[in-house]
Structure formats: structure tokens, C-alpha cells
Specification:
single chain; mainly alpha; two-stranded antiparallel sheet; disordered C terminus; 62% helix
């Protein structure tokens, strides 16, 4: 056997064979890179860095198209994890947490899971539908109708709303930069900024008086994200501090996030969540740094995952679907996955008898279709998402809000005239215009 294999082994060490293998591996590497980065290359080809004016003219619909590609193809895990963490970070602001505690939506695990699912539904409807579409308009109208009573009674400030929106902008970008297989390009960051600036206007968030200067000061979505990041950091310094209401919300939310984990793994899950937060955030929400050895192992895991996904894996050939239409009702939509309880999830054969379903049965967790219609397996209507309809939260107000949004030119670029923005951008790039200080409105 040894002598039979020896000629083959000797052949592998022949210089010509080694040269052929090196060339073949190089070709495969380049081909894998072309396929892995093809969506990023396509976006940069459409909006190249040298054609800066194209960023300025980017419409919300164009920005949403880029954002949807990031969510469904490039970084589905990053967006899901970062949004869940963003909700925890919001609870570090006492003015926000006190109001949320008073609503009573965190009194038990079922209410926590319902609120988490409803928040996810509205965010998905925002991001996966073009701003000029009826479903996007309806989702924004529903969100505004839920906030309206608290805004009218001045229980929610404009700065609190802008900070909450800033986390949905910034946390996915930060998560991708630290843990994903590639960084976002400037064009992709500009698209994220353009999209969420348009959403801020749709939600009547008065960012112009909170952020530096006026809306015409921003050249494009990339600069808007930079300004928002600086303002958000100063806001956290002034407003994020420990409070009993913070801890109540965080305990309830963490119980929900770890609900489907076996008890023996929940400590590791808590360490994983804590490892995502900065020190000042941990102090505000009452959590602690995980052990050093766990942080080292976790950093090694993220590094290994980044390398494997970048160099060994091919891109997704099909999008990661989050929402599907209910075949029995045109007005209702269903989710394809769930975090805590299976709200709005279609009880298909795979959802009820797949591997996850068997695991849930072992640990006495809920599957889609359990408990009859408790978790609304038939799906949701956008105008019914959220808590029970009360005063100021009814459909009449939502109809007026929908009409207001339809009257807006949602397909228009959310920044000022291109010549003015180009002039400002050139002046700032050459240092002839000083950067504005952070707003004292915080």
C-alpha cells in the first residue's frame, strides 16, 4: 500500500503540479470573491464614489432598494441581532423606560413577546417596502397613531424619538463593522441615512431643531449618519443613567430573548448580550461585563466567522424572507420566523413538525398553531398591529395620517437642492466652512 501511494504523493510535490494547483486556487479565490461581493460591486457601480452628486440625488425608494438587499441577502443576521440590542439600549434612558413601564406591556412574558413581534412587524414593513408604496405608508401611519396620544400629552419628547430612531440607523452599521464578513461601503451607509431621514420626516420628528444646523446643511445620507452618530453619543452622555424602570424593562426583555434557550445555556446567552454593550450602557441597564475568558473566546468566534464567510462561503442565492402573504386573506400577512412566541406565524407542516418544533416540545415551548388562535396564526393587518385600540389610537386618526402621508412627495430626495449641497460640501471639504457644534437642545 505504501509503495502504491508513493508515486501519487511524489507527483503532488512536483514543481509543475504545484504551480498548476497555485494557479487553480488563485482562480477559485478570485471567482469566489467576485461572487461574494457581486451585490456590493453592483451597488458601487451604480453609485460610484467619484460620482458624489448621485448620492445627493438618491431618493428614498432607491435607498430602500439598497437597504432591502442588505437585510435579505448580505447581512440578515446582523440586522436582526442589532435591532434586538437596540431595543435594550433604548431602555437605558429613564424618560423612555418610565413611560414604557406605565403602559403595562412588560408585566408578563406574553405581553413582552407580543410587543417585540409588533415592533418587528412595523420595522419590517418600513424597510421591506418602498416609501412610496401603500404598505410602507400604512405602517408609518400605524406607528404614528400609536405614538400620537403620548406626543399630544407631551409624555414623549422629540429628542427621545430621534434617539430611538438613531439606534435603528446606527446599531446595524456598528454591528456589521465589528462582526460581519465585510464593511459597508460609503454608498450603503448613505442609503441607510437617506432612508431613515425620510422616515424621520414621515414620523414628524423635528430633527432640524435638534441636530446641528438645518436640513439643507446635510449633503447626503452619509453625512446625515455621521451627524446623527455624534449627536446620539452626546445624548447618551447626558441622558443615559441607571434607574429602576430601566432594570424592570431590561429584565423583562432579556427573559424574552432567552426564553427559548435551555436553562443551562441562559447564563451564556446573558453573557452574549452583555458583550455587545459599551460600559456606560451596561451601567444604565444594570448588567455586568462577562468573564474575560468568555470575551476572548467570543472575539475568536467572531473573527473565525468573518473569515469563513468572507473566503469560504458563496453569497445567498435567494433572499431571506421575513413576511409572506396569507393565501386566505388579501389583507393579512404572516411572519416566517419568531423570537419568543410564534405571533403571526403560519402553522405549516415544517413549522409544526420540524427540528425546531421538536426542540420546543422537549423544553415545553410554544409552536405555531398552539393554543388555537392565541398567537394569531392567520396573520396580521397593519392597521391592527400594536396594543388594544384606545383613545387617540383609533382608525379614524390613522386614516387622516395615511391621507397626510399620501399627500407628501415620498419619492423626492429628502435633502436640499443639489447645487447648494454641492457648494456646501466643497466648502467643508476644503475647510472654508467650520463644522457646526453639537446642538445644546440635548
Amino acid at each position: 500500500m505504501y509503495w502504491t501511494c508513493y508515486p501519487v504523493l511524489a507527483l503532488l510535490f512536483h514543481p509543475i503540479v504545484q504551480l498548476v494547483l497555485v494557479i487553480l486556487l488563485d482562480v477559485l479565490k478570485n471567482r469566489q470573491k467576485q461572487m461574494r461581493f457581486r451585490r456590493s460591486f453592483a451597488t458601487e457601480e451604480k453609485y460610484p464614489d467619484v460620482a458624489w452628486e448621485r448620492w445627493c440625488r438618491m431618493t428614498p425608494d432607491q435607498a430602500q432598494e439598497i437597504l432591502q438587499g442588505l437585510i435579505e441577502y448580505e447581512f440578515p443576521f446582523a440586522f436582526g441581532a442589532s435591532v434586538s440590542f437596540a431595543l435594550l439600549k433604548v431602555y437605558g434612558i429613564p424618560s423612555i423606560s418610565r413611560l414604557l413601564v406605565r403602559t403595562g406591556e412588560f408585566s408578563d412574558i406574553k405581553k413582552v413577546s407580543k410587543r417585540t413581534a409588533d415592533t418587528g412587524v412595523l420595522l419590517l414593513e418600513f424597510c421591506l417596502n418602498k416609501p412610496s408604496s401603500q404598505r410602507h405608508i400604512e405602517a408609518v401611519a400605524r406607528m404614528n397613531s400609536l405614538h400620537e396620544p403620548y406626543i399630544r400629552q407631551k409624555e414623549v419628547s422629540q429628542t427621545d424619538m430621534l434617539y430611538t430612531l438613531s439606534l435603528f440607523v446606527l446599531e446595524p452599521i456598528r454591528f456589521i463593522e465589528k462582526r460581519e464578513w465585510r464593511d459597508l461601503s460609503h454608498v450603503e451607509v448613505a442609503a441607510i441615512g437617506t432612508f431613515w431621514k425620510a422616515v424621520a420626516e414621515e414620523m414628524n420628528i423635528d430633527y432640524a431643531t435638534i441636530l446641528p444646523k438645518s436640513e439643507s446643511y446635510y449633503c447626503d445620507g452619509f453625512e446625515f449618519v455621521q451627524r446623527l452618530e455624534v449627536w446620539s453619543a452626546f445624548y447618551e452622555i447626558r441622558r443615559m443613567q441607571p434607574a429602576e424602570s430601566n432594570r424592570k424593562l431590561v429584565d423583562a426583555q432579556i427573559e424574552g430573548l432567552l426564553y427559548n434557550l435551555p436553562n443551562s445555556f441562559k447564563t451564556f446567552g446573558l453573557w452574549m448580550i452583555s458583550s455587545l454593550a459599551e460600559d456606560h450602557v451596561l451601567r444604565a441597564i444594570g448588567l455586568y461585563r462577562p468573564p474575560t475568558i468568555f470575551r476572548i473566546l467570543l472575539k475568536m468566534f467572531w473573527t473565525l466567522r468573518r473569515w469563513v464567510m468572507r473566503y469560504l462561503m458563496l453569497p445567498r442565492s435567494t433572499p431571506r424572507k421575513y413576511i409572506e402573504e396569507n393565501s386566505g386573506s388579501k389583507d393579512k400577512h404572516q411572519l416566517t420566523d419568531y423570537l419568543i412566541h410564534p405571533w403571526y406565524v403560519n402553522p405549516t407542516f415544517s413549522n409544526r413538525w420540524g427540528l425546531r418544533a421538536y426542540t420546543n416540545r422537549v423544553f415545553e415551548r410554544k409552536n405555531p398553531g398552539d393554543d388555537g388562535s392565541t398567537f394569531l396564526p392567520e396573520g396580521y393587518r397593519i392597521d391592527e398591529v400594536g396594543p388594544a385600540v384606545g383613545a387617540g389610537m383609533g382608525k379614524d386618526w390613522m386614516e387622516k395620517e395615511r391621507a397626510r402621508l399620501q399627500d407628501l412627495d415620498l419619492g423626492k430626495c429628502p435633502f436640499g437642492p443639489v447645487p447648494e449641497r454641492r457648494y456646501r460640501g466643497m466648502m467643508m471639504a476644503t475647510g472654508e466652512v467650520e463644522m457646526m457644534p453639537i446642538s445644546e437642545g440635548v
